[in-house]
Amino acid sequence: MKQQKMVMAIGSPNYLNGISIKFQDILIVEFLNFDYFANGIHTKKISFETPHRVRYCILNESQTLQWEYSETSIFSEMCLNLEMVKHNELFKYAVPLILFTWSETSSATDGINIEEVHLHSMIRFTIEDALFIRTNKTAIDIKSAVITPEWYEVLFKKAIKNHEDNSLFLNNHQCYYRKLFNEIEVENKFLLVSNSDDIWALTVDFYHRIRNAELVGYIPEYKDEFQAWDYWNYLFEVVEPGPEVGYISLIPTTDGKFTIKRKWYEKDTFMRREHHYKNQEIEEPFKPYIEERFKVNIIEYPAFRRVRYDVNFESLRSGHVYGIFFDHTTINDTKKNSMSQCEVEYLRSRSLISFDEQIILEEMQEITEWVSGVLSTLNVEFEKTYYSKLTFLKDNYAGRLNDE
After folding, report:
1. Domain ends where: 170, 199, 230?
2. Helices and strands counted in the chain (H then E)
3. Are residues 306 and 371 in the same domain?
4. Spatial CA neighbour of 218 closest among 52, 352, 371
C-alpha cells in the first residue's frame, strides 16, 4: 500500500531570508490528507473548508519533540489558532515556511519503505491559504524506514539551503516568473461563428469550471485568476522587406504613451515571433513614424477596439501558467464589423525545476481539447483556427473594397 505524507514547517519568514536559522524555533505540522503534485502544493487542496486532523509538535526548551493531535485547521486565522501554541511568543506571528512530502510504501514482506522525498518553499500566502513550489530537482534518498524528528531537522536545513540558493527568485514579490519560448507567442484560437455568444457568460462559466477542478491538475493562478481588458489597437501590416513581414500595432496606455506590439510571421499559425516595446512616446500620424523607425513598408488598417476577459490558471504538474481569453473585436464600433474569439495561450512559468518546453506543448494540447469539449457541451458553434486580428482586418478591408 502506498500513502502520501506531508509535513509543514511553520515559523518566522526570517528563516527564508537568511536572518535566523534556529531549528528549535520551528513548529512541525503533519497533514494526514492532501493532494500532491509534482511542481508544488496549493494549500486550498487540503480542504480547509472543513476541519481536518493534523499532528503537530513543538520543540521545547530541551529541544525534544512533543507530539499532539488536533481537529483544528492550521490556517484558521493563519496565526496558529491552536490552544497549545497561540500564547507562545515563538509562534505568535508564524506563517507556513516549508513543506516536506514523501511516499510510504508498506508490505508484509518488506515493511515500510520511504521514497520520493521532496522539499517545497512557500512563495506567497494570505490569511486563508498559501502557495509552495518544489525546490529539489530530484527526490532525496533518506535511507530510512521512518522519518524521525532528527530527519525533520536535516530536511529543514536542506530546504533552507535550497531556498537561500534561489533567494532572488523566491524572496521577491511576484518575481518568480520565467518565460519559456522566449519572444514566441504560443496560442490556439477558436472563432465563435455566430458572433452573438455572450463572452462574459462564457468567461464566468469557464472560470467556475476551473475553480471546481474540472480541468484536472490545474488551479486558478494564485491571486491573479481573472483580468479584464478594453483598449484600442492601431494595426499596420508589414509587407516588406521579406524577413520583416507580419504586423506592428500601437496600443494606447493609461499614461498617454503606447505599447508597440510586433509580430513576425507569413501566415496565421500556432507559434509566432513576438516582441513588445513598452512606454513609447508616439505622436500622430502613426504610419510615417513606423516606416521611419522600423524601415519597413506597411499597409494601414482601420483601428479596432478589443474587449477581453482572461481566465488565468496554472499547472500543478509543471508550474506553467496558461490563459483562456474570450475577446470581442470591433472595427469602428459597428456590429457588422466585429468578431468574437476564444484563445488558449501559454503565458509564463513559475518553477525552479521545469524547463522542458515539450511539456508546454503537451499541456497546450490537453487544455485546447478540454476547451473544445466545453464549448461543444455549451452548444457554442466554433471553428478551431489560427485566425488572427490581421487576417480579420484584411478580410474586412477586402469586403469593403468589393462593396465599393
Report:
1. 170
2. 6, 19
3. yes
4. 371
Q: Would you put residue 373 in left (φ > 0), alpha (ψ -120 to 50) or beta?
A: alpha
Digit-coded pLDDT (tens) for 334-358: 556 899 999 999 999 988 887 889 9
Report the domain count for the chain. Answer: 2
Strands 304-315 and 246-252: unpaired
CA 342/CA 261 separation, integer angstroms: 20
Q: Are 48 and 75 in contact (CB under 8 A)?
A: yes
If you write DSSP's letter for every residue of 100-120 in order, what string do you get?
A: EEEEEEEETTTEEEEEEEEEE
- Same domain for 199 and 123, yes or no, is no
Domain housing 74: 2-170
**Does 290 lie in the same domain as 159?**
no
Residue holding cell 502613426? Answer: 286
**Cell numbers that stand for 380 in this block:** 457554442
Q: Are residues 130 and 22 in the same domain?
A: yes
pLDDT digits (tens, 9 = 90+) for 4-18: 777 778 777 887 887
From CA 211, how far away is CA 45, in angstroms rounded? 11
CB 253 within 8 A of CB 276: no
